[in-house]
Design goal:
Blueprint (H helix, E strand, L loop, with lengths): L1 H16 L8 E8 L7 E11 L2 E10 L4 H18 L12 H20 L2
Antiparallel strand pairs: 1-2, 2-3
Amino acid sequence: MKKLKSLMAISFVVLSLGGFAADKVYEATAEAKGYNEEGVPIVLTVKAIKKDGKVVVTDIVAKHQETDKVGGAAIEQLIEEVKTKQNYNKLDSVAGATSTSAGFRRAIRNAVKDIEKQN
C-alpha cells in the first residue's frame, strides 16, 4: 500500500509538471543601414516567444559599426526600450542618432515580421 501511494504521488507530480513546458523560443536575424562611413548595416538577432498571439521579445543582440558614443549608445537604449516596453512598432528616434534609430527600427520590424511567420 505504501508503494502504491508513493507511485501515485510521483505520477501526480510528473503529470502536474507537464503544464509548465517552456515556451518555444523563435529567432530571426535582420539588417538595415544605419549611419557609418563604410555603409555597414546594423544586424539584429532577435529572440522571442509568442504569447496570446503576440510576439514578446526576450533578447536582442546587435552587431554594428556605428560610433560607440552616439550610434552604439542609441542602439543600446533602443534595445532596452524594446525589451522593457515591448513596443517595437513605435520606437522614437534617439536624439543625435536619427539614421541609426531608423536603421534599428527597420531591422527590428523585419525580425519581428519573420518571427510572426514562424511556426
